[in-house]
Request: fold
Amino acid sequence: MDRDLVEQARTGDREAFAVLVHQVSDGLYAIAQRTLRDPGLAEDALQNALVLAWRQLPRLREPDRFEAWIHRILVHACYDESKRARTWNANVRILPMDGPSTPDGSAAIADRDELEGAFRRLPIDQRSVFVLHHYLGLPLVEIAAMLEIPAGTARSRLHYAMLGLRDALTAEPQAPVRGGRLA
Amino acid sequence: MIDDRSLERSARSWIEEGLTAAPPHAVEAALLRIETTPQERDWHVPWRFRTMTLPARLVAAAVIGALVIAGAVALGGLGAGRSAPTPTPTTAPSSAVVSPSTGTIVAPPLAETFASSRYGYSVKYPTGWAVVPSNTLWTTIGSNLWSSGINDEIHGTAARFSGASMQLSDGQTADQWITAYASPADRAKWSRIDIGGQSGYLTADGAPAAAGAIAPSSVYFDAVVVVEGRVYNFDLDGHVDRA
Reply:
């Protein structure tokens, strides 16, 4: 990350910030999309994170930490979007689908399906730690520092996320509700 | 039973699938919003205050000692639908201040007075400083940045002052305004200060000035006072000191 660009953006240079936006947007969107599992919500989280980052940039004390700082803003934007989605989903009825419970009989695809369903059922804070650790490759200590939580909390969130996924992969299929999952 | 390693491998492989590029329209929409979004001001308060030079203290004393809320405003306010009275200074600043570290310091004479008819306050300042009155009314919290045209600005060579005021919204309390003005974490660091005989808040108590400050390695102060339903915001930037 170009420190000079961050410094310029801190002092109100919108062009410098636009360059930064183009540098970080793909990475931020990929994280948001994987955390929220919904392209529309991920777009909203990305936009809100970028606007909030612009507003709060003068408060950034260490320009070298820009990337970690904006990741934290994005994670919180994902929390907000998740709440919004939950409110909306509360008004959606789950309808069972007809047809076989396993779409194509492929174990790998079925596993992905189970992972997808299980991941969506995880609390958003567990999802975030999972994505930051397994997708971004960040060590738990770094994730804890980024999210301003104790390292033990980050470890615990990852542990419970993995437990949730494990349960999904080892549990018996529940045919009546397949295909009617909520986002 | 799936073992930990297999589970982790499966999960990692699964999470890597999916979109990796932000939709251009989402990025453009964000940049469009940013075009009309002001940056928040930096209210960070350092743990230690920097050591000020004697000239710095002189300038500081000159400016901070000169701040006066106009009596006309304090008593009558600038309510909606009312015309702004011409403010007049109510007190004369002291000609000297005492610094615990350096003894008595004589401030430069505050021979000039600027009265802001737009915002309803007056301030005394040293001869030779340049006055740039505001050309745009302050209506949005956080938008009164330096050189935005919203503040009245008075410049010396190594320090500058800015002032602006806005009416509280209907039903809005001073606390609500201040909460919107600075984050709760920063607000806890505010200290009380007397401004023209009114109880106000010092919100950036000698914080290092960001790039673009009037003088390198300088500091700034930001003070807020609410009088009769109107919020006044005064900033000092450069070689200034709260003394």
Notes: The mean pLDDT of chain B is 69. Chain B touches chain A at residues 1-2, 4, 7-8, 10-12, 14-23, 26-27, 29-31, 33-35, 37-44, 142, 145, 210-212 (CB under 8 Å). The two ends of chain B are 71 Å apart (CA to CA). Chain B has six helices and 13 strands.
